[in-house]
User: Fold these one by one.
Assistant:
Number 1:
Amino acid sequence: MEDKEKKDIFESIWKFFASVRLAIVVLIVLAGSSIIGTIVEQKAEPAKNITLLAKFFGDSAAPTVYNIFAKLGFMDMYGSWWFTTFLAVFSVNLIVCSIDRFPKTWRVIKKPQKPLSDSAIKSMPIRKDLTFRTGLDTAKEQFLKSLKASRYRVNESSEENTVRLYTQKGRYARLAVYVVHLSILLIFAGAIIGVRYGFKGYLNLPEGRSSSVAYISPTEPIELGFVVKCNWYDTQYYVDSDTPREFQSELSIFENGKEVLKKTIEVNDPLKYKGITFFQSSYGMMPDTVGYFVLDIAPAGGPEKRVWLRLGDSFEIPGTGITGMINDFSTALTRDRDTGKLNTYSKNMVNPAVAIEFAEPGRDTYTGWILKRYPDTGFLPGGHSVKFADYWGVEYTGLQVTKDPGVWLIYLASTLMGVGLYICFFISHKKIWINITGNKKSVRVAIGGSTNRNRINFEKEIDKIISRASESIEGGQPSKK
Amino acid sequence: MTSSVLFDISAGAYIAAMITYVIYLVVRNRTTGIVATSITIFGFVCQTAALAMRWVHSYYFWMASNPTSGFVEATLRGAPLRNLYESLIFFVWSLMLIHLIFEFKYKNRSLGAFVTPLAALALLFIDISGATKEIQPLIPALQSNWLLFHVFLSFIGYAAFGVSFGAATAYIVMVTESKTEKTYIFWSIITGIFILVLVGMGIDFLSLSSAERAELFQNHFLKSTIRSSSGGVVAVSSIVSVAFIFLLWHLGIRLKKVLEGLNLTPAMLDEIAYKSIAVGFPLFTIGGLLMGAIWANSAWGKYWTWDPKETWSLITWFVYALYLHARFVAGWRGKRVAILSVVGFIAVIFTYLGVNLVLSGLHAYGSG
Ligand code: HEM
């Protein structure tokens, strides 16, 4: 008695989770509730959302509504207990439903195809009836050939006066749905692994500095297990414009004080080391910092020499007697169109320029601005050059630092889902039966076909098989009945 | 001839085709139908040429600032899919391509009257939104092949969903028996809003100065009608809008007769609506969701952040998954699934435009 009751309960729970109706309800709930999360700003400061809510509910009601929403988890919805629960129900639904249906699908796949009678062929979704003035053997031969040309592997059975050809293709495509469903579960699994065993952090690293930690939040450092150093950061611009073309940093990895890896990273091209990935994500200037002016100096026709100087320092262009002194700097130099005056239009290093006062024996001193983005500005009279390579040590690179041991599973699942969907929608399970009845002079051909999708295409394929066969059958055109 | 002149010609052709398709629906004259198709094909050829020219152009544009690039890299970076303008143009192109394929496959022209308005809406939107038509340099985050495939496939997917939407709305009209049916009321309101927005944008286009149109889209959208600063204009437009929707509801049922006269059957429309989704769903899943996630992961190390744009594409995906299961597995047929196709396309529009216009997104892409 009790056992039976238990079994009944189990059965009704199973039925509940195996139902596609539940899937429809859950999909509607997930889609509907996701909308809330795109309207209410997630994990934002309360003030932001209260302002937003005030637009809908008025100023006085907004704080109350906010509190209710916050209790319901709307402010961090995708992590809330009830959203997670729906995702769990969705997964269970998917698993149970697939297990529930799989045996039936498997039987359909494994069921051997049998020859059919003429009357059974007549009730097929696709059917054709033809007669030819030719012998039974020729007709059979040509239809076999034509089916093979369409890459069917054909079975045959024959009685007197009748040959039955039957064949099927693409039956394993019926499994693709399960691959798609499995891939959804794998994505969940990958996401869970990522959240449990990985982290998402950030690190703002000034030029020339190193760190052995990243930060999950300003108060939550996380050990990397090695040391990362920013050698330099640089923004490159499109010619004659302030549109950034590339953000780059050169990073080095140190273990036990020894450099083990060095790489220039860009957006879309991160550095990976020991499962931790460093992405270029932002940059900025450090306040109140003085850096080094990095200049590449070359006398006319001579080799380039790199020097590192502070504001006010001097240098000499080797072998020329010309000296220069750094006396001014601008992060973003521009010349005002109306007044012709020079000024700085941004605090960021958009168009850095250095002013150098040059002195040459027997000549007046003169001052020139050299711009990093325009190396031409560094050519002096006489063919000497002073190029402004960088103002180093004042910028920091903003790194996204993540560890996600589940990401390979996401990639695997994505591939599976792509392949699964392709097969599911573009490859169908097709069955063809051809009964040929007749004698040495004339035959009747009954053709039937069925498919689980893309019927129109399948009908065209059958037409092609017929026309190919009838063209090569002696006596030419079939007469349709 | 420059690519922008060709684009204008194709835009003109699509709008002319839309008008001709509608006339064809009414007069049911074979020649009119052939003219409509010919204009569409002409527009499509012009647009294809324009896209190719723009691609070549942006290839050299990329080469100019990145002389060390190889041929393949410059070709990929030059693909005309890089901002709102280019993606809308590509959307229209894919929509017309899929439409033409269906038209030839089903030997039926009437669907044009339901699909070309989508193209017209997108084209008007380009002009009205003031989206820049310049070839722009690519900001670093967009310099990714994943992104390119992502945008390319999503848009073909969107276009397929658009065709499904057209077929589903035609289906709803055809199977309506009485004006009080909920589906029919839903249809008249949605279609009414659609047409009103189209007309409203047309009026904006004619009445706003180009300086006004160059402003942020949110600031001038429907500014000359329903969102006018003059109370009188707002009142009149609201009344006209409500009256229009009422009229559409009242007279729309006559469309049924028209469609019946055009050898369109509900079964055929239902099949087109389903087929388009069967094509669009895999493309959108692979291109839209999966490649988008892979791109985000390669650029920022996070494949999923629940930002509004991502979430809305997930919502869209849920709606179409719902459609497939409801129809294919739960055996829903008819109006209920047609409504899902309509809802799905509304989600598509919101994913693409609404998120940028209405919600604040993180995505730099598509913001104009
Ligand atoms: C958003 C998530 C889902 C996706 C993307 C998805 C995908 C698919 C696809 C592409 C098909 C084939 C449809 C067709 O042939 O037209 C399918 C079939 C099916 N799905 Fe899902 N599915 C999802 C969720 C679910 C869930 C939660 C259930 C749980 C009940 C479910 C149950 C089924 C069943 C029973 C079939 C029919 C299988 C058969 O042909 O025997 N699906 N699914």
Number 2:
Amino acid sequence: MMQHYDPSMSPWDARYGFGVGNIRALETRLIDETMLARLLEAGSLKDLEGELEETEYSQVISLSNDLQDPEAMLQAELKRVYDLVHSMDPDPALTDLFRYRYDIHNLKTCYKAQLIGEDPGPALTDLGLYPVEEIKRMIAEEDMGGLTPELSAMMEELLPKLKDAPDSRSVEMLFDNAQYSFLYAQAQRKNNCFLEGYLQFQIDLINLKTWLRIYKMKGNRKLLEQALLDHGLLDREWWLDIYGGGIGELISRMSYTPYSDLADAEVISEDGNLVELERLTDDYLLDYVKIVSYVSMGVEPLIAYILAKENEVKVLRILLVGKLNHLPKEEIRMRLRKLYA
Amino acid sequence: MNWGLVPAIIGAALAVGLSGFGSAMGISYPAQAANGVLAEDPEKFGSLLMLIVLPGTQGFYGFVAAFFVMVKLGFFGGGAQVVPTLSQGFQILGACLPIAGGGWISAIFQGRVSAAGVGLVAKRPKEFMKSVIFSALVETYAILGLLATILILMGIKM
């Protein structure tokens, strides 16, 4: 995999001494392949609960109602991690970006609910930095003054475009593009090459999946243009240029990009499995995150820990939902992602 | 008044001051990281202490160099027993520079290596000695600086 981020060039920021030390100790408690295999082999939910009691999830497992509601436990674990990292970060502007994503999700959900006159209810999350009620009020009154200046500017720019959006799907796409532009701008503002690189890869991989979805549903070029995100390593012209050439052209052109390994995978084909592609792209991003183990002082290990925990939560969600639905072990295993530990 | 004492004392002060400054900074890096590790895993105190202490040696080397200067000037016989000429004073100042500069810079970089070692020990305690060896490699240049300082001091004819 080609990487344009060089961890040896990361600035030495001594303010992160405590945080990095703390994170290195916490990383030893992440779920590793051995523990994952034990979780997968657990015969019953009771056994699974017993295994999870040996992990960091023991602090939040009581919320899961004997694992019948794993989502409550997973959300609580994420909230605990975000709060923990925030408490040890002397300048949380970058680590807080991961929580702003939930605020933007809540803003989007409230806006869409308002459009169709429904209550956003359970689709809202309390993982953001702003209370859900405050977000509801902001959308209802179109008053973004309570947000940070950067987030407020993003919404002020977005609101007029939203008013012209013809349907809910367009609203979704406008919010997604605004979100990634906001995250990328903040990473640039803080001059953080690691996060910039991560976002660029993430944007490209989202664009790849969008491209394939639209191509497979025989969508037109205009729809693709609307759905593509900006700020990837491959700009929107790159994706639009190859649209006419089909999947063959996509694979051929991708082999000259950092995503050549993905181009070789069989999932990128006319009848390729998009769920499998989702797994491969997650693994690709995690491989990028792992290079932060070479950074000995700075904000990067804190960001990597957040991303590692988010990945771990995703893996556990797949496993627990699979177990709850009595899926065979092999089928669950095929869907699991790589782990950071 | 013979001005030779002034550069000689400045040399001794630089040897102690700069090496001590470097050591203080060098110790602070692994110490902060070690606090973070100990917050989760207090049992690692012993191995982490070793990594924290390593960048502190340069401060001692600086003191040893200053001690040699003081011996040379006969300070321990109640005031300066040997009053150097201006030329000799500058020779002593020059002799102090290897440990002053080498100690100062090497302590800071050794602190960085030790801080990275703290991360290694946190994740793989069995690799502790490897991180100590890496950190000790940086120390080599402080030792060479001290040796150079002592040899030059011994070569100055009073």
Number 3:
Amino acid sequence: MALDAGTLDVLREIGNIGAGNAASALATMLDDKVNIGLPSCEMVPFTQVARGFKSPEDLVVGTLVQMSGDMEGFVLMALPLDAAFELLKLLTGEEFSGNADDYGAVCEALAPVSEIGNILIGAYLSAISSMTGMSIIPSVPATTVDMAMALMNIPVVVYGEIGESVLYMETDFHNEVSSIVGQYFLIPTVESSSRLMSALGM
Amino acid sequence: MKTTIIGIAEWSIVRAPDKISTLGLGSCCGVVLYDSLFKIAGMVHVMLPTASAAKVLTNPAKYADTGVELLLEQMLKEGARKSAIAAKLAGGAHMFAHANMQSDLLKVGERNVQVCHEALRKARIPLVSEDVLGTHGRTITFDPATGSLHIRTVGLGEKDI
């Protein structure tokens, strides 16, 4: 897939706007400042798709929402385990007291992240929707705890047919003391990326 | 002794005592072909089922059908004997299986496994063991010295197949 530099710049700005709105939503929930990093938007080889994580086997909580309507594809929110626990602690006041090696207990404790992800991804997409005038319908969220690389198989499959790289559109976010850090990945299908460009008159 | 780690859409061949590994298989599949007498093993990390949809085949290691063919060819070049080659297979998970989402993209793991089976059958390579499907990521390491495929699955522990 060949996306020119101009297109990537526009997509980067889209990611920035989405993540900015999601950051405001999270800031309201936490009553704390939430900052976003510089968004990246580039073509990345398959083998480097998990480069935003400590290691390909790093355990992360992934919340996935499928987009339909004018834009098709997925949005993935990824949080390292400790950040997810910190987020829940700040929101519910409850600390995880179970055994961190007990996968079942960890998943159960982290289940509410799905709803938080739903709200944040909703904020992310509504900003993109108002900016572009495209109607984007998010699915119900699904959340899992697994290896970073295994979750990042999703963009690989979405872009796999068309080249040797994936569209890597990522924005990270963190609270003031950086006890919570996370990432959003916007994964529009190839057809949707072109549709997005025409919606913006490009 | 070293362990060669391959990434998505890559392949490699090692000889004992070296090992070969790939990290965090989700819907992707890791196919191992090995000659247990000569102790040579190859692994390919495929991500999609068939190459037929691709206009130009730039990298056969991307697809289950062409990936198996490619790996067999390379194994024979490395001196493995066709009659002695056997296979082991892992991967093909559906990472968000509980999701109420209608997308063939999310179910590609199942297709990957199916096409790996077909490709092995077509090449007349016996599939000795496999750990496929499910909803969890896997890290796999093959040891040509013992013919054992070590599998680490988050939440489900480790095993050798």
